[in-house]
Write a structure and sequence with these properties.
This is TldD/PmbA family protein. The chain is α+β, with helices and mostly antiparallel strands. It contains 10 helices and 18 strands.
Length: 443
């Protein structure tokens, strides 16, 4: 019987400890996945395969200096130990050539964390049958990824963390014959065939409206509903240093005015870094326990994400943030708007399913610009009239989630990162939709 990922990690960890020399310290990170990928075109399987990979990140510390190396693992335990020994030797040769790191701070706490989330994933045949049943006659283009993701961490100070979780992510678009598309996603850890079918059917319903003549709007302010996928794009912009202690300390955060107390958001807005129960491990890449962190509560800034390096540089207390100080499991509290009442409450205005190409047009003012994307509709008296031609918006977060925010939906959507750059991501967001009194369209 082949060794489990955790056993492989612990075996390499034992070899590393045995090879350590006096005065040396280490941190040791482990990443692995067993992923099934399926690509679809015209609702048919066009490419299917599996990816099985594992790697370790070794950081060697001695005399105030540090150096690290990434090691790709294979299927042979003996060869893996040899690769680890070679890497250790190379790091020993490198360390004396480096300058002392003035901001090197090591968490010397001997903590222990273990999480094994063994949710049952669907059989691929079930997924394919549902797609054939609900979208077999449609031009469905997308990708399905599923399988266990593992993360491990250990240090010479006695810290040990293990995280293993199963997840799935189906990301797809339905294309109309006129070239327009509806984009949809279903992701999580607990699979529900009924939920998947409901999302497929909603996408088909929206696709029918794309056949109507496109409506062109003039620049101006419009009442709007932003679906969770659109909110995810906005939240993603905030993750670009918005909550970062380093960015806030150097004046480079879009939320600078909020954290300085010079501005506020709507009392409906409460953001948290909600690690517990998420796909992300309860420990950082720097080797600190990662806790839930309240970031914004009822429109007021509360805490920021502080890495060990920022704690040393700016005399703060680290709270388990990764080195890039970006949320790994951002959660926005729900509101009071029932999903079935969205169109009625919107009345006349924009229904925005997605946004894209977002960037800051004025960082200090938290002003963002971007384009509407996929299934943006004009609604009159609670009824969808037709698709809206692509428009650019330019508005401040202090408006969208501040003075202009009317309500958030009761239901929230768990959105897992679709990034597979190097490996499947463990990042996620848990977001409601937002009803705003005014969204500024510029062209």
């Amino acid at each position: 019987m082949s060794a489990t990922p955790q056993h492989r990690f612990e075996s390499l960890l034992g070899a590393l400890r045995d090879a350590l020399q006096p005065g040396e310290q280490f941190t040791f990170g482990y990443s692995a996945e067993q992923s099934q990928f399926v690509r679809f075109n015209h609702a048919k399987v066009r490419q299917a395969g599996e990816v099985s990979q594992a790697s370790v990140q070794l950081r060697l510390i001695c005399d105030g200096r540090q150096a690290e190396q990434l090691i790709t693992l294979g299927d042979d335990a003996v060869q893996d130990r040899a690769r680890l020994a070679d890497a250790l030797g190379q790091l020993r040769q490198t360390l004396p050539l480096l300058a002392v790191d003035p901001y090197l701070r090591l968490d010397e706490t001997p903590w222990n964390s273990h999480s094994q989330q063994d949710h049952t994933l669907p059989e691929l045949d079930e997924v394919l049958a549902l797609i054939e049943q609900e979208a077999g006659d449609q031009d469905l283009v997308g990708i399905y990824a599923a399988g266990p993701i593992c993360r491990g961490f250990a240090s010479s100070f006695g810290a040990f963390g293990w995280h293993q979780a199963n997840s799935f992510n189906m990301d797809w678009s339905l294309f109309h014959s006129n070239g327009q598309a509806v984009k949809a996603n279903y992701a999580g850890q607990a699979w529900s065939a009924d939920e998947f079918v409901a999302r497929l059917r909603l996408a088909r319903e929206q696709l029918a409206f794309l056949g109507r003549p496109a409506i062109t709007l003039k620049p101006g302010s419009y009442r709007a509903y932003l679906a969770p996928a659109a909110m995810d794009e906005i939240a993603g912009m905030l993750c670009w240093g918005g909550f970062s202690a380093q960015a806030l300390a150097t004046g480079n955060s879009a939320l600078q005015r909020l954290y300085n107390g010079d501005a506020q958001l709507s009392p409906l807005v409460s953001f948290d870094e909600q690690v517990s129960g998420s796909l992300s491990p309860a420990f950082s890449d720097e080797g600190s326990p990662r806790l839930d962190v309240p970031l914004i509560q009822q429109g007021q800034a509360v805490q920021r994400l502080i890495s060990a390096r920022s704690a040393a540089e700016f005399a703060l207390v680290a709270n388990g943030a990764d080195s890039y100080e970006s949320p790994c499991a951002l959660s926005l509290a729900a509101g009071n708007l029932a999903s079935e009442a969205i169109l009625e409450r919107l009345g006349t205005g924009l229904y925005i399913s997605n946004l894209w190409y977002l960037n800051y047009s004025d960082l200090p003012a938290a002003r963002m610009t971007g384009l509407t994307r996929f299934a943006t509709f004009w609604v009159e008296n609670g009824q969808i009239q037709g698709p809206v031609s692509t428009m650019r918006f330019d508005d401040s977060l202090y408006s969208l989630l501040g003075s202009q925010l009317e309500d958030l939906t009761r239901e929230r959507e768990m959105i897992l990162s679709t990034s597979t750059y190097g490996q499947r991501s463990t990042g996620s967001s848990h977001l409601p939709g937002a009803l705003v009194k005014g969204l500024t369209l510029t062209l």
